[in-house]
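Comment on the following before class.
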Amino acid sequence: MASAGQQFIAGKRRPGGSAEQVSVTNPATGEVLATDTLASPEDVHEAVAAARHAFGDWSRTTPAERAEAMLRWADLLQARGEELAATESRIGGKPIKLARGFDIPGVIDNVRFFAGAARNLEGRSAGEYSGEHTSSIRREPLGVIGAIAPWNYPLQMAAWKVLPAVAAGNTVVLKPSELTPLTSVMFAEAAGEAGIPDGVINVVTGTGATAGHALVSHPDIAMVSFTGSTAVGRRVAAAAAGDVKRVHLELGGKAPFVVFEDADLEAAARGAVAGALINSGQDCTAATRAYVHRTRYETFVARVAELMDGVRLGPVDDPDTDMGSLISFRQRDRVATMVDRARESGATVVRGGRIPGGPLSRGAYYEPTLITGAAQDSEIVQQEIFGPVLVCLPFDADDDAIRLANDTPYGLAASAWTGSVFRAQRASRDIQAGCVWINDHIPIISEMPHGGYKASGFGKDMSAYSFEDYTNVKHVMSETTGAPRKSWHDLVFTSG
Protein backbone atom coordinates (compact mmCIF):
# COMPACT_ATOMS: atom_id res chain seq x y z
CA MET A 1 0.00 0.00 0.00
CA ALA A 2 1.61 3.25 -1.13
CA SER A 3 1.69 6.28 1.14
CA ALA A 4 1.38 9.91 0.10
CA GLY A 5 2.13 11.05 3.64
CA GLN A 6 0.14 10.53 6.82
CA GLN A 7 -0.10 14.19 7.81
CA PHE A 8 -3.20 16.02 6.57
CA ILE A 9 -2.95 19.75 7.18
CA ALA A 10 -5.10 22.48 5.62
CA GLY A 11 -6.57 20.01 3.14
CA LYS A 12 -3.32 18.50 1.89
CA ARG A 13 -1.47 15.26 2.54
CA ARG A 14 2.23 15.47 3.26
CA PRO A 15 5.02 13.61 5.07
CA GLY A 16 5.90 14.54 8.61
CA GLY A 17 8.75 16.88 9.33
CA SER A 18 10.60 14.84 11.95
CA ALA A 19 13.57 12.59 11.30
CA GLU A 20 11.70 9.63 12.80
CA GLN A 21 10.07 7.11 10.49
CA VAL A 22 7.28 4.62 11.17
CA SER A 23 6.15 1.57 9.26
CA VAL A 24 2.45 0.81 9.43
CA THR A 25 2.17 -2.97 9.37
CA ASN A 26 -0.52 -5.63 9.35
CA PRO A 27 0.14 -7.24 12.75
CA ALA A 28 -1.51 -10.47 11.60
CA THR A 29 1.08 -10.99 8.86
CA GLY A 30 3.92 -8.53 9.35
CA GLU A 31 3.25 -6.99 5.93
CA VAL A 32 4.35 -3.35 5.69
CA LEU A 33 1.39 -1.28 4.50
CA ALA A 34 2.95 2.18 4.52
CA THR A 35 6.12 3.94 5.59
CA ASP A 36 6.24 7.60 6.50
CA THR A 37 8.02 10.20 8.60
CA LEU A 38 6.26 11.21 11.79
CA ALA A 39 4.98 14.65 12.73
CA SER A 40 7.30 17.13 14.39
CA PRO A 41 6.22 19.82 16.88
CA GLU A 42 6.38 22.26 13.95
CA ASP A 43 3.85 20.14 12.05
CA VAL A 44 1.54 20.27 15.04
CA HIS A 45 1.93 24.04 15.23
CA GLU A 46 1.03 24.36 11.53
CA ALA A 47 -2.00 22.11 11.96
CA VAL A 48 -3.24 24.14 14.92
CA ALA A 49 -2.71 27.35 12.95
CA ALA A 50 -4.71 25.93 10.04
CA ALA A 51 -7.51 24.90 12.37
CA ARG A 52 -7.52 28.28 14.09
CA HIS A 53 -7.70 30.04 10.72
CA ALA A 54 -10.60 27.83 9.59
CA PHE A 55 -12.50 28.28 12.86
CA GLY A 56 -13.69 31.81 12.11
CA ASP A 57 -15.71 30.86 9.05
CA TRP A 58 -16.70 27.34 10.11
CA SER A 59 -18.02 28.47 13.50
CA ARG A 60 -20.34 30.90 11.71
CA THR A 61 -21.80 28.45 9.22
CA THR A 62 -25.43 27.67 9.82
CA PRO A 63 -26.40 24.38 11.44
CA ALA A 64 -28.07 23.41 8.17
CA GLU A 65 -24.86 23.99 6.21
CA ARG A 66 -22.85 21.86 8.62
CA ALA A 67 -25.50 19.14 8.57
CA GLU A 68 -25.66 19.02 4.77
CA ALA A 69 -21.87 18.72 4.46
CA MET A 70 -21.80 15.95 7.04
CA LEU A 71 -24.55 14.01 5.26
CA ARG A 72 -22.54 14.20 2.04
CA TRP A 73 -19.55 12.99 4.05
CA ALA A 74 -21.53 9.98 5.28
CA ASP A 75 -22.55 9.12 1.72
CA LEU A 76 -18.91 9.22 0.56
CA LEU A 77 -17.83 6.99 3.45
CA GLN A 78 -20.60 4.53 2.66
CA ALA A 79 -19.56 4.40 -1.00
CA ARG A 80 -16.00 3.63 0.14
CA GLY A 81 -17.06 1.26 2.89
CA GLU A 82 -15.27 -1.80 1.55
CA GLU A 83 -11.98 0.06 1.11
CA LEU A 84 -12.24 1.52 4.60
CA ALA A 85 -13.13 -1.87 6.11
CA ALA A 86 -10.24 -3.62 4.36
CA THR A 87 -7.78 -0.95 5.50
CA GLU A 88 -9.11 -0.91 9.06
CA SER A 89 -8.84 -4.70 9.17
CA ARG A 90 -5.24 -4.74 7.96
CA ILE A 91 -3.86 -1.96 10.13
CA GLY A 92 -5.45 -3.40 13.27
CA GLY A 93 -5.15 -7.13 12.62
CA LYS A 94 -8.90 -7.48 13.10
CA PRO A 95 -11.26 -9.83 11.23
CA ILE A 96 -12.76 -8.32 8.10
CA LYS A 97 -16.24 -9.28 9.29
CA LEU A 98 -15.78 -7.10 12.40
CA ALA A 99 -14.61 -4.14 10.32
CA ARG A 100 -17.44 -4.62 7.79
CA GLY A 101 -20.17 -5.37 10.27
CA PHE A 102 -19.30 -3.11 13.21
CA ASP A 103 -16.51 -0.58 12.75
CA ILE A 104 -17.35 1.09 9.44
CA PRO A 105 -21.18 0.97 9.74
CA GLY A 106 -20.81 2.46 13.22
CA VAL A 107 -18.73 5.34 11.91
CA ILE A 108 -21.18 6.12 9.11
CA ASP A 109 -24.09 6.03 11.54
CA ASN A 110 -22.18 8.39 13.84
CA VAL A 111 -21.65 10.89 11.01
CA ARG A 112 -25.37 10.86 10.22
CA PHE A 113 -26.33 11.17 13.89
CA PHE A 114 -24.14 14.24 14.42
CA ALA A 115 -25.33 15.74 11.14
CA GLY A 116 -28.78 15.72 12.72
CA ALA A 117 -27.44 16.91 16.06
CA ALA A 118 -25.90 19.97 14.36
CA ARG A 119 -29.45 21.26 13.86
CA ASN A 120 -30.59 20.52 17.40
CA LEU A 121 -28.15 22.39 19.62
CA GLU A 122 -30.19 24.59 21.93
CA GLY A 123 -30.08 26.39 25.26
CA ARG A 124 -32.80 26.69 27.85
CA SER A 125 -34.43 30.08 28.31
CA ALA A 126 -33.74 31.56 31.72
CA GLY A 127 -37.00 33.53 31.70
CA GLU A 128 -38.17 37.07 32.42
CA TYR A 129 -37.05 39.31 35.30
CA SER A 130 -39.27 42.05 36.78
CA GLY A 131 -40.79 42.62 33.38
CA GLU A 132 -37.72 44.55 32.25
CA HIS A 133 -35.16 41.89 31.33
CA THR A 134 -35.24 38.66 29.40
CA SER A 135 -32.60 35.93 29.44
CA SER A 136 -31.46 33.34 26.93
CA ILE A 137 -28.69 30.82 26.62
CA ARG A 138 -26.23 30.59 23.75
CA ARG A 139 -24.16 27.48 23.08
CA GLU A 140 -21.01 28.43 21.23
CA PRO A 141 -18.16 26.34 19.82
CA LEU A 142 -14.98 26.27 21.88
CA GLY A 143 -12.37 26.75 19.14
CA VAL A 144 -9.64 24.28 18.13
CA ILE A 145 -10.02 20.80 19.61
CA GLY A 146 -6.99 18.56 20.11
CA ALA A 147 -8.12 14.95 19.68
CA ILE A 148 -5.93 11.95 20.48
CA ALA A 149 -7.28 8.57 19.34
CA PRO A 150 -5.97 5.06 20.13
CA TRP A 151 -5.09 2.10 17.92
CA ASN A 152 -7.74 -0.44 18.92
CA TYR A 153 -10.61 1.11 16.92
CA PRO A 154 -8.70 3.64 14.85
CA LEU A 155 -11.54 5.08 12.78
CA GLN A 156 -14.34 4.75 15.32
CA MET A 157 -12.41 6.44 18.11
CA ALA A 158 -11.35 9.23 15.75
CA ALA A 159 -14.95 9.70 14.63
CA TRP A 160 -16.24 9.85 18.20
CA LYS A 161 -14.00 12.86 18.79
CA VAL A 162 -14.10 14.65 15.45
CA LEU A 163 -17.83 14.46 14.74
CA PRO A 164 -19.37 16.23 17.77
CA ALA A 165 -16.64 18.84 17.62
CA VAL A 166 -17.19 19.65 13.94
CA ALA A 167 -20.98 19.48 14.19
CA ALA A 168 -20.88 22.09 16.96
CA GLY A 169 -18.75 24.45 14.85
CA ASN A 170 -15.28 23.66 16.20
CA THR A 171 -12.20 22.76 14.19
CA VAL A 172 -9.97 19.79 15.00
CA VAL A 173 -6.39 18.59 15.04
CA LEU A 174 -6.52 14.80 15.32
CA LYS A 175 -3.55 12.70 16.39
CA PRO A 176 -4.21 9.04 15.62
CA SER A 177 -1.86 6.35 16.86
CA GLU A 178 1.27 6.15 14.75
CA LEU A 179 0.51 2.42 14.42
CA THR A 180 -2.87 2.93 12.72
CA PRO A 181 -3.14 6.31 10.92
CA LEU A 182 -4.33 5.26 7.47
CA THR A 183 -8.11 5.33 7.90
CA SER A 184 -7.98 8.58 9.88
CA VAL A 185 -6.38 10.35 6.93
CA MET A 186 -8.91 8.76 4.53
CA PHE A 187 -11.68 10.00 6.85
CA ALA A 188 -10.37 13.58 6.80
CA GLU A 189 -9.89 13.56 3.03
CA ALA A 190 -13.48 12.43 2.51
CA ALA A 191 -14.67 15.30 4.71
CA GLY A 192 -12.93 17.74 2.38
CA GLU A 193 -14.50 16.13 -0.67
CA ALA A 194 -17.90 16.50 1.01
CA GLY A 195 -17.43 20.25 1.24
CA ILE A 196 -16.05 20.69 4.75
CA PRO A 197 -13.47 23.46 4.31
CA ASP A 198 -9.72 22.95 4.43
CA GLY A 199 -8.34 23.30 7.94
CA VAL A 200 -11.51 22.22 9.73
CA ILE A 201 -10.13 18.69 10.16
CA ASN A 202 -6.36 18.16 10.32
CA VAL A 203 -4.44 14.97 11.06
CA VAL A 204 -0.93 14.76 12.54
CA THR A 205 0.61 11.32 12.94
CA GLY A 206 3.30 11.11 15.57
CA THR A 207 4.25 9.66 18.91
CA GLY A 208 2.60 10.72 22.13
CA ALA A 209 5.87 12.04 23.49
CA THR A 210 6.40 14.36 20.52
CA ALA A 211 3.21 15.16 18.59
CA GLY A 212 0.86 14.34 21.47
CA HIS A 213 2.72 16.53 23.93
CA ALA A 214 2.96 19.40 21.43
CA LEU A 215 -0.79 19.20 20.83
CA VAL A 216 -1.87 18.99 24.48
CA SER A 217 0.41 21.83 25.56
CA HIS A 218 -0.34 24.15 22.62
CA PRO A 219 -1.81 27.45 23.89
CA ASP A 220 -4.31 27.68 21.01
CA ILE A 221 -5.97 24.35 21.83
CA ALA A 222 -9.25 24.95 23.66
CA MET A 223 -10.02 21.35 24.61
CA VAL A 224 -8.23 18.02 24.63
CA SER A 225 -10.19 14.84 23.98
CA PHE A 226 -8.11 11.74 24.75
CA THR A 227 -8.77 8.01 24.65
CA GLY A 228 -6.10 5.71 26.04
CA SER A 229 -4.72 4.28 29.23
CA THR A 230 -5.42 5.77 32.64
CA ALA A 231 -1.71 6.36 33.25
CA VAL A 232 -1.34 8.45 30.08
CA GLY A 233 -4.67 10.14 30.76
CA ARG A 234 -3.29 11.49 34.02
CA ARG A 235 -0.33 13.00 32.16
CA VAL A 236 -2.63 14.54 29.55
CA ALA A 237 -4.76 16.14 32.28
CA ALA A 238 -1.67 17.51 34.02
CA ALA A 239 -0.29 18.99 30.80
CA ALA A 240 -3.63 20.56 29.89
CA ALA A 241 -4.01 22.10 33.34
CA GLY A 242 -1.34 24.70 32.65
CA ASP A 243 -3.65 26.55 30.25
CA VAL A 244 -6.85 25.50 32.06
CA LYS A 245 -7.94 23.59 28.96
CA ARG A 246 -11.13 21.61 29.02
CA VAL A 247 -10.30 17.89 29.09
CA HIS A 248 -12.34 14.88 27.98
CA LEU A 249 -10.87 11.52 29.05
CA GLU A 250 -12.01 8.04 28.04
CA LEU A 251 -9.56 5.78 29.79
CA GLY A 252 -9.05 2.16 30.81
CA GLY A 253 -11.67 -0.37 31.75
CA LYS A 254 -12.02 -3.68 33.55
CA ALA A 255 -15.62 -4.58 32.83
CA PRO A 256 -17.34 -6.97 35.27
CA PHE A 257 -19.74 -9.55 33.84
CA VAL A 258 -22.13 -10.58 36.64
CA VAL A 259 -24.13 -13.81 36.22
CA PHE A 260 -26.84 -14.20 38.86
CA GLU A 261 -28.30 -17.59 39.78
CA ASP A 262 -31.48 -17.02 37.73
CA ALA A 263 -29.65 -16.04 34.50
CA ASP A 264 -30.11 -17.74 31.15
CA LEU A 265 -26.78 -19.55 31.34
CA GLU A 266 -26.45 -20.30 27.63
CA ALA A 267 -27.05 -16.67 26.71
CA ALA A 268 -24.63 -15.54 29.41
CA ALA A 269 -21.89 -17.94 28.28
CA ARG A 270 -22.22 -16.81 24.68
CA GLY A 271 -22.26 -13.18 25.78
CA ALA A 272 -19.12 -13.71 27.85
CA VAL A 273 -17.16 -15.22 24.97
CA ALA A 274 -18.27 -12.53 22.52
CA GLY A 275 -17.69 -9.77 25.08
CA ALA A 276 -14.26 -11.03 26.08
CA LEU A 277 -12.90 -11.78 22.62
CA ILE A 278 -14.24 -8.91 20.49
CA ASN A 279 -11.32 -7.24 18.72
CA SER A 280 -9.04 -9.85 20.39
CA GLY A 281 -10.03 -8.37 23.75
CA GLN A 282 -8.51 -5.01 22.82
CA ASP A 283 -11.58 -3.12 23.89
CA CYS A 284 -11.87 -1.02 27.03
CA THR A 285 -15.41 -2.32 27.55
CA ALA A 286 -14.45 -5.99 26.98
CA ALA A 287 -15.80 -8.50 29.49
CA THR A 288 -12.71 -9.37 31.51
CA ARG A 289 -14.07 -10.45 34.93
CA ALA A 290 -16.99 -12.88 35.07
CA TYR A 291 -18.55 -13.22 38.53
CA VAL A 292 -20.88 -16.22 38.53
CA HIS A 293 -23.20 -17.47 41.29
CA ARG A 294 -21.57 -20.50 42.87
CA THR A 295 -24.49 -22.80 42.02
CA ARG A 296 -23.98 -22.07 38.29
CA TYR A 297 -20.23 -21.55 38.29
CA GLU A 298 -18.93 -24.94 37.13
CA THR A 299 -21.54 -25.24 34.40
CA PHE A 300 -20.77 -21.72 33.18
CA VAL A 301 -17.00 -22.32 33.09
CA ALA A 302 -17.43 -25.58 31.19
CA ARG A 303 -19.70 -23.97 28.61
CA VAL A 304 -17.42 -20.96 28.10
CA ALA A 305 -14.47 -23.29 27.61
CA GLU A 306 -16.44 -25.27 25.03
CA LEU A 307 -17.40 -22.12 23.15
CA MET A 308 -13.82 -20.84 23.17
CA ASP A 309 -12.75 -24.11 21.56
CA GLY A 310 -14.95 -23.19 18.60
CA VAL A 311 -13.53 -19.70 18.04
CA ARG A 312 -11.74 -19.55 14.71
CA LEU A 313 -8.37 -17.75 14.58
CA GLY A 314 -7.12 -17.10 11.11
CA PRO A 315 -6.24 -14.61 8.38
CA VAL A 316 -8.01 -11.32 8.91
CA ASP A 317 -9.22 -11.13 5.31
CA ASP A 318 -11.04 -14.48 5.64
CA PRO A 319 -14.75 -13.81 6.32
CA ASP A 320 -14.89 -16.98 8.44
CA THR A 321 -12.24 -15.76 10.89
CA ASP A 322 -13.69 -14.94 14.32
CA MET A 323 -10.60 -13.50 15.99
CA GLY A 324 -7.53 -11.85 14.53
CA SER A 325 -4.21 -10.84 16.01
CA LEU A 326 -3.28 -8.33 18.65
CA ILE A 327 -1.95 -4.96 17.52
CA SER A 328 1.72 -5.89 17.88
CA PHE A 329 4.14 -8.53 19.13
CA ARG A 330 4.84 -6.22 22.05
CA GLN A 331 1.18 -6.26 23.06
CA ARG A 332 0.94 -10.01 22.53
CA ASP A 333 3.96 -10.58 24.76
CA ARG A 334 2.52 -8.28 27.43
CA VAL A 335 -0.68 -10.35 27.50
CA ALA A 336 1.30 -13.62 27.57
CA THR A 337 3.41 -12.36 30.47
CA MET A 338 0.34 -11.38 32.51
CA VAL A 339 -1.20 -14.83 31.94
CA ASP A 340 2.07 -16.51 32.90
CA ARG A 341 2.25 -14.50 36.12
CA ALA A 342 -1.35 -15.48 36.94
CA ARG A 343 -0.49 -19.15 36.38
CA GLU A 344 2.60 -18.85 38.59
CA SER A 345 0.47 -17.23 41.31
CA GLY A 346 -1.81 -20.27 41.49
CA ALA A 347 -4.56 -19.50 38.95
CA THR A 348 -5.70 -22.22 36.54
CA VAL A 349 -5.59 -21.64 32.80
CA VAL A 350 -8.61 -23.66 31.67
CA ARG A 351 -8.28 -22.81 27.98
CA GLY A 352 -5.67 -21.08 25.86
CA GLY A 353 -2.83 -19.26 27.56
CA ARG A 354 -0.46 -19.83 24.64
CA ILE A 355 0.94 -18.22 21.52
CA PRO A 356 -0.28 -20.28 18.53
CA GLY A 357 2.19 -22.16 16.41
CA GLY A 358 2.14 -22.81 12.68
CA PRO A 359 1.30 -20.07 10.18
CA LEU A 360 -0.29 -17.90 12.88
CA SER A 361 3.05 -17.57 14.65
CA ARG A 362 4.04 -15.06 11.95
CA GLY A 363 1.47 -12.65 13.40
CA ALA A 364 0.77 -11.28 16.86
CA TYR A 365 -1.85 -13.91 17.71
CA TYR A 366 -2.76 -15.19 21.17
CA GLU A 367 -5.21 -17.94 21.98
CA PRO A 368 -8.63 -17.23 23.56
CA THR A 369 -7.91 -17.73 27.24
CA LEU A 370 -10.08 -18.69 30.21
CA ILE A 371 -8.71 -18.45 33.76
CA THR A 372 -10.17 -19.60 37.07
CA GLY A 373 -8.87 -19.63 40.64
CA ALA A 374 -7.33 -16.15 40.58
CA ALA A 375 -7.43 -14.01 43.71
CA GLN A 376 -9.61 -10.91 43.66
CA ASP A 377 -6.60 -8.72 44.49
CA SER A 378 -4.37 -10.27 41.82
CA GLU A 379 -3.00 -8.41 38.84
CA ILE A 380 -5.04 -10.44 36.34
CA VAL A 381 -8.27 -9.36 38.08
CA GLN A 382 -7.36 -5.77 38.93
CA GLN A 383 -5.40 -4.51 35.93
CA GLU A 384 -6.44 -4.02 32.32
CA ILE A 385 -5.18 -6.89 30.13
CA PHE A 386 -6.26 -5.68 26.68
CA GLY A 387 -6.13 -9.17 25.28
CA PRO A 388 -8.42 -12.19 24.73
CA VAL A 389 -8.52 -13.23 28.38
CA LEU A 390 -11.55 -13.87 30.61
CA VAL A 391 -11.18 -14.54 34.35
CA CYS A 392 -14.07 -16.34 36.11
CA LEU A 393 -14.70 -16.14 39.85
CA PRO A 394 -17.64 -17.42 41.95
CA PHE A 395 -19.83 -15.47 44.37
CA ASP A 396 -22.40 -16.56 46.96
CA ALA A 397 -24.77 -13.63 47.50
CA ASP A 398 -25.98 -10.67 45.48
CA ASP A 399 -24.21 -8.26 47.81
CA ASP A 400 -20.93 -10.05 47.12
CA ALA A 401 -21.44 -9.79 43.36
CA ILE A 402 -21.95 -6.03 43.49
CA ARG A 403 -19.01 -5.55 45.86
CA LEU A 404 -16.68 -7.60 43.66
CA ALA A 405 -17.88 -5.86 40.49
CA ASN A 406 -16.98 -2.48 42.00
CA ASP A 407 -13.66 -3.67 43.43
CA THR A 408 -11.25 -2.25 40.83
CA PRO A 409 -10.13 1.32 40.11
CA TYR A 410 -12.12 1.33 36.85
CA GLY A 411 -15.74 2.04 36.01
CA LEU A 412 -16.30 2.19 32.27
CA ALA A 413 -18.80 -0.57 31.53
CA ALA A 414 -20.40 -3.66 33.07
CA SER A 415 -23.13 -6.18 32.42
CA ALA A 416 -25.57 -8.09 34.62
CA TRP A 417 -27.34 -11.29 33.59
CA THR A 418 -30.59 -12.14 35.36
CA GLY A 419 -34.24 -13.03 34.83
CA SER A 420 -35.31 -10.77 37.71
CA VAL A 421 -36.32 -7.17 37.07
CA PHE A 422 -35.42 -6.40 40.68
CA ARG A 423 -31.87 -7.73 40.34
CA ALA A 424 -31.52 -5.93 37.04
CA GLN A 425 -32.58 -2.63 38.57
CA ARG A 426 -30.31 -3.06 41.57
CA ALA A 427 -27.33 -3.94 39.39
CA SER A 428 -27.91 -0.93 37.15
CA ARG A 429 -28.13 1.30 40.23
CA ASP A 430 -25.27 -0.08 42.31
CA ILE A 431 -22.58 -1.05 39.80
CA GLN A 432 -20.25 1.92 39.44
CA ALA A 433 -19.86 2.19 35.67
CA GLY A 434 -20.80 4.61 32.93
CA CYS A 435 -22.75 1.89 31.13
CA VAL A 436 -24.50 -1.18 32.57
CA TRP A 437 -25.91 -3.64 30.07
CA ILE A 438 -28.62 -6.05 31.16
CA ASN A 439 -28.54 -9.53 29.57
CA ASP A 440 -26.13 -8.36 26.88
CA HIS A 441 -22.59 -7.04 26.68
CA ILE A 442 -20.99 -4.47 24.36
CA PRO A 443 -23.79 -3.08 22.13
CA ILE A 444 -23.09 0.60 21.44
CA ILE A 445 -25.34 3.04 19.58
CA SER A 446 -24.90 6.62 18.43
CA GLU A 447 -27.83 8.01 20.42
CA MET A 448 -26.55 6.83 23.81
CA PRO A 449 -23.52 8.14 25.74
CA HIS A 450 -20.30 6.21 26.31
CA GLY A 451 -17.95 7.20 29.11
CA GLY A 452 -16.73 6.15 32.52
CA TYR A 453 -16.60 6.59 36.26
CA LYS A 454 -13.58 6.58 38.56
CA ALA A 455 -10.22 5.89 36.87
CA SER A 456 -12.01 5.28 33.57
CA GLY A 457 -12.22 9.04 33.08
CA PHE A 458 -14.98 11.58 32.50
CA GLY A 459 -16.93 13.08 29.64
CA LYS A 460 -19.10 11.24 27.13
CA ASP A 461 -18.61 10.06 23.59
CA MET A 462 -21.56 9.88 21.17
CA SER A 463 -25.08 11.15 21.97
CA ALA A 464 -26.28 14.67 22.70
CA TYR A 465 -24.26 14.62 25.94
CA SER A 466 -21.06 14.42 23.90
CA PHE A 467 -22.26 17.17 21.58
CA GLU A 468 -22.80 19.56 24.47
CA ASP A 469 -19.31 18.87 25.83
CA TYR A 470 -17.85 20.64 22.79
CA THR A 471 -19.61 23.95 23.45
CA ASN A 472 -19.43 26.86 25.84
CA VAL A 473 -22.61 27.99 27.61
CA LYS A 474 -23.18 31.74 27.53
CA HIS A 475 -25.91 33.57 29.43
CA VAL A 476 -27.32 36.59 27.58
CA MET A 477 -29.51 39.06 29.52
CA SER A 478 -31.25 41.87 27.62
CA GLU A 479 -33.02 44.94 28.95
CA THR A 480 -36.37 45.12 27.14
CA THR A 481 -37.92 48.48 28.05
CA GLY A 482 -35.36 50.96 26.71
CA ALA A 483 -35.40 52.80 30.05
CA PRO A 484 -32.71 52.81 32.76
CA ARG A 485 -33.13 49.93 35.21
CA LYS A 486 -34.05 51.67 38.47
CA SER A 487 -32.85 49.24 41.09
CA TRP A 488 -29.49 48.42 39.51
CA HIS A 489 -29.03 52.05 38.43
CA ASP A 490 -29.65 53.27 41.94
CA LEU A 491 -27.20 50.74 43.41
CA VAL A 492 -24.38 52.02 41.22
CA PHE A 493 -25.14 55.73 40.97
CA THR A 494 -26.05 57.84 43.97
CA SER A 495 -27.08 60.95 42.05
CA GLY A 496 -28.22 62.16 38.67
About this structure: The chain has 16 helices and 22 strands.
